[in-house]
C-alpha cells in the first residue's frame, strides 16, 4: 500500500494538472484565459518530461540525466504566462508596474544564468 501511495505522490506533478486540463476539454474558456490555458498544457508536457527523466535516470545517457533545465524553463514560462494574464486583465491597478516587471525579471534571469548558475545543470 505504501508503494502505491509513494508512486501516486511521485507523479503528482502530472496528475494534479489533469484536473484543470479535463475541465479545459469540456468547458470553453474566455479569450482572456488564453495564457492560463497555455500554461496548463505546457506545464503538463514539461512536468511529464521532468518525471520521465527522473524515473529513467539510470537508463538515460549522462547528457540527458538532468531535468534541471526543464524546471528552469517551467519557472520562466509560469512567470511570463501569468504576468501576461494579469496584464491582459486591463485593471487600472498598477498597470505600468505590471508591464515593467516581466522585463526586470528577464534581465535578472539573463544575469543569473549568464554569471551565477548553469541553466542546464545544477
From TrEMBL:
Transmembrane portions of the chain: 12-27, 32-50, 70-89, 101-121
Keywords on record: Membrane, Transmembrane, Transmembrane helix
Name of the protein: Uncharacterized protein
Organism: Pedobacter cryoconitis
Amino acid at each position: 500500500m505504501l508503494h502505491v501511495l509513494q508512486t501516486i505522490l511521485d507523479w503528482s506533478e502530472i496528475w494534479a494538472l489533469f484536473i484543470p486540463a479535463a475541465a479545459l476539454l469540456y468547458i470553453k474558456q474566455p479569450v482572456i484565459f488564453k495564457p492560463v490555458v497555455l500554461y496548463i498544457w505546457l506545464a503538463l508536457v514539461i512536468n511529464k518530461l521532468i518525471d520521465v527523466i527522473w524515473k529513467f535516470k539510470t537508463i538515460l545517457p549522462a547528457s540527458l540525466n538532468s531535468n534541471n533545465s526543464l524546471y528552469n524553463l517551467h519557472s520562466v514560462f509560469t512567470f511570463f504566462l501569468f504576468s501576461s494574464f494579469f496584464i491582459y486583465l486591463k485593471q487600472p491597478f498598477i498597470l505600468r508596474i505590471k508591464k515593467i516587471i516581466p522585463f526586470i525579471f528577464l534581465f535578472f534571469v539573463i544575469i543569473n544564468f549568464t554569471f551565477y548558475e548553469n541553466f542546464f545543470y545544477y
